[in-house]
Write a structure and sequence with these properties.
- 33% of the residues lie in helices and 21% in strands.
- It is an alpha+beta fold.
- The protein has a domain of 170 residues.
- The longest helix is centred in the middle third of the chain and has 29 residues.
- The radius of gyration is 20 Å and the shape is globular.
- The C terminus is likely disordered.
Length: 246
């Protein structure tokens, strides 16, 4: 569940008095993520700041994600005040504390909420439901966002399924650190093999181009240059700690 702690279905009766304190929102819930899932529609935005890689799920499928830390339970984009430091904030994080849960058999989806989120209250904030029990404006906007994001993850799954079908993804260990710096390794990530990509037949390449998949692949490959930014952020974090001690 990554960023979620205690997820329950949102109920207009049980949660009638629930409110969301927008001013209270922060990124503390993401502080221990070293990668964040993204959808293909986010690639152009995310590639300007992050390296986009692929993670292998338990069922063997793949999911694109941006790398935000050099080791487990480290997010270099969340500062000491639990704020996102800079750059594009992935939609997966912007949906919090809500999420859509899909029943695999029926395909029906349910709006859920992380009831443990400290930005929820019954005393202050924007009401999720009206006095008559209808969806409030804040919840309505959230539901629209959730539905759009759910659809994008479906389209993203089709893209990664094609990469898997064509056997284009290679597992790699990413190494950080220049000369004279401590070496760090990040394993368990997959990237598109340029060698196998160039070996594809013309008809396959044309199909990838027409579907938009080829553009996404090259956006992913170009984004890998952003790995250097993680080392820079790690060094800045270390300097900030030293300054604080001094």
């Amino acid at each position: 569940m990554l960023i979620y702690d205690k997820v329950v279905p949102l109920n207009r009766h049980t949660h009638r008095r629930l409110r969301l304190r927008a001013s209270h929102h922060n990124a503390r819930f993401a502080a221990e993520l070293n990668s964040v899932p993204v959808t293909t529609i986010e690639f152009p935005h995310a590639a300007g700041e992050y390296a986009i890689v692929f993670a292998r799920l338990e069922n063997g499928d793949f999911l694109p994600a941006v790398v935000v830390g050099l080791r487990n339970q480290q997010n270099l984009y969340v500062d000491e005040n639990a704020r996102w430091k800079r750059g594009y904030v992935p939609a997966f994080l912007r949906q919090y504390p809500f999420m859509l849960a899909e029943d695999r058999d029926s395909g029906t989806v349910t709006v859920c909420v992380d009831i443990a989120y400290d930005g929820l209250s019954e005393e202050e904030g924007d009401a999720l439901f009206t006095e008559s029990g209808e969806d409030g404006e804040t919840l309505g906007r959230a539901m629209g966002f959730l539905q759009e994001l759910h659809g994008e993850f479906k389209r993203t799954a089709a893209f990664t399924a094609k990469l898997k079908e064509l056997n284009l993804l290679d597992q790699q260990v990413i190494r950080f650190g220049g000369e004279g710096e401590p070496q760090r390794e990040l394993g368990g990530v997959y990237v598109v093999s340029e060698e196998r990509l160039l070996q594809l037949g013309d008809n396959v390449v044309v199909d990838l181009f027409k579907s938009g998949a080829l553009g996404l692949i090259y956006t992913h490959l170009v984004s890998m240059r952003n790995l250097d930014r993680l080392s820079e952020l790690a060094q800045l974090g270390g300097a900030a700690k030293s300054d604080a001690v001094n």
